[in-house]
Amino acid sequence: RDPLSWLAILLVSCLRTYASSTSKPNILLMMADDLGLGDVGCYGNDTLRTPNIDQLAKEGVKLTQHIAAAPLCTPSRAAFLTGRYPIRSGMGSSTKQRILYWTGGSGGLPTNETTFARILQQQGYTTALIGKWHQGMNCESHSDHCHHPLNHGFDYFYGMPFTLVNECQSTENRQLNALVQAKYWLYSQIIALTVLTLLIGKLTGLFLVKWKAIICFALCGFLFFISWFSSYGFVKYWNCILLRNHDISEQPMKLEKATSNVLKEAVSFIERNKHGPFLLFVSFLHVHTPLITTEKFLGKSRHGLYGDNVEEMDWMVGRILDAIDKEGLKNNTFTYFTSDHGGHLEAQKQNTQLGGWNGIYKGGKGMGGWEGGIRVPGIFRWPGVLPADTVINEPTSLMDIYHTVAHLAAGIMPQDRVIDGRNLMPLLQGKVQHSEHEFMFHYCGLYLHAVRWHQKDSAALWKAHYTTPIFQPDGTGACYRSGLCSCFGEDVTHHDPPLLFDLSSDPAEIKPLSPATEPLFDTVISRIERAVQEHRQTLTPVPQQLSGYNNVWKPWLQPCCGTFPFCWCDKEGDSHQELL
What we know:
Blueprint: H1 3-22, E1 26-32, H2 51-58, E2 61-67, H3 73-82, H4 86-89, H5 116-122, E3 126-132, E4 156-160, H6 178-204, H7 211-232, H8 235-238, E5 242-244, E6 247-251, H9 258-272, E7 278-283, H10 304-326, E8 333-339, E9 348-349, E10 352-353, H11 371-374, E11 375-381, E12 390-392, E13 396-397, H12 400-408, H13 425-428, E14 439-444, E15 447-454, E16 461-469, E17 492-502, H14 521-536, E18 569-570
Helix pairs in contact: 6-7, 9-10
C-alpha cells in the first residue's frame, strides 16, 4: 500500500481510539463502607498502607471537599444512585431507625426512581453491582423483588441485599438496634421473673392468685418474647444472605469467603465484558463491622483489626485495577473511588477502636451536619482525559456521579424530577475553576441540620448549623453511650441563630463566628435562610420508605432458600477458589 493508504488507516485507528475514549467509556465505581477520610494515605494518613488508592489519586484527580448526601448508608447510597437528596425519594427517616433494618421489610428504593444504572442500561451498557446493596428487597411477597438491583437497572447482581452487622458473625456484641434489643431482653426477664414469683407464691400459698391469671400472664409474656426474638434472635439467617441475581446462594453467608467471592466476581465481570461498554459498581463490604478480614492481612497493620481491614480493601482495589490493566482497558475506563459516609467513631469493643478516623474533621457516621460524618474520599482516573496528580478543593457531592456518568454515556436525564447532582467533567478536566454547587443541604434523616454556602464572589465557604448532636459523654466528639448520634429530640441542640463557620479558614469547625467577630454574619445567615426556603419549595410529599411499618420485619417478605422458617443453604460450595 502507498504511504497515503497507511496514513489513512492510522488516522482512522486514531479517530476510533479517540471516539471510544471520549464517547462511551467503561465505568468503574468503587465504594467503601464506613471508611473515614483520614484512613487513606493520600488524604493524610501516614500509618495505614493504602498504596493502590494512593496511586489512583496520583494518576488522576483527588477531591478534598467531596460530600455525602447523608451520614448513614441507606440514605447516602439512595442519593448516590439517584442523584437526589434522600428526602426526595422517601429514603430519609423521621424516626431513630434511619437505615433499612431487614431484608424481610417492605421499605426500599422506590420503583419510580431512575438510577444511573438504568440510564446507562438504556444506552447499551452492561451493568453490574457486586457487593452491598442495602436498598431493600420486597414489597408484597417474599419473591416480588420490587426493590432488587435487577429492578433498578443492573443486569447482574452478586452480593448482600443487606449489610454486614456484628450478628452476621456472632451474637456477643449485638449491633442491629442494640438499645431496643437490650430493652426487650430486660422486659422479657422482668416478665419471666414475675411469672416465676407468682408461681412460687401460688405453690407456697403466699399469694392468692388464680392459676388462670398465672397462665394468661405467662402466655402473654411468651408471645411478647416470640414477637421480638423471632426477628432479632435470628438476624444471621434473616439478613446475612448472599444473592446471585434473584437466587439465594448462601443463607447465612459464609463470611470467611466473602472477600474472595466479591473480588472474583468483580474480576470475572471485567473479563466477560472487556469489549464493553460496561458499568461495574463494586460496593465493598469493607470496612464495616464486624471487619471480616482474611488471614493474610490479620495483624499486619498498625491499627488493629480495623487497620487490617482497610489494608485488605486497598489490596482488593489494586486487584480490580490490575484486571482493568490486564484487559487493556485502563485508558478507556472512567474510574472512581469513594466511601458512603464518614468513619464510625462509636464502633468500639472494650478499649479497641473498630471504626474509622475522619482526620481533622469533627464528628463521624450518623452526624448529618459535622464534616466528619459527610466528607469522604473522592478520586477519579481516566488517563488522557482527566489530568494526573491533580487536587480540587471545590465542594462536590456523591450525587454528582449520577449526572456525570449519565453525561459520559450520552444518557437522557429524567425531566420530571429535581436532580441535585451536577456534571463534574468540566471541573475534573479543568475547563471550569468552580463547582456548580452554590448551596448544599446537610440532612440528618428528614431534619435539616446544616447548610453550606459556596459564595461565588468570595473565597469564603460558609456553613451554618441549625442543629447539632449532644455528645455523650460531653466533649468526647461522639455519642458513645448510645452508639450513634440522634437527629432530633432531647439528644440534639437547636441553634438560633445558627452556628456559623467559615470552612475556608476553619475546616475543623472549631471557632464559631458571631456578629462581633464576623461583620457579614447577619448577611450570610439571611442569605442561607433564603436558600433554605427556596430549597423547601422544591420538595414534594412522598411515601416514607423508612417508616415504622416499612422498617419492621415481616415473615411473609423474608427471602428464604428453604421452607420458611428453615432457611439455610450453600449453593456456592467450593466453586470460588481463593484469590489470596
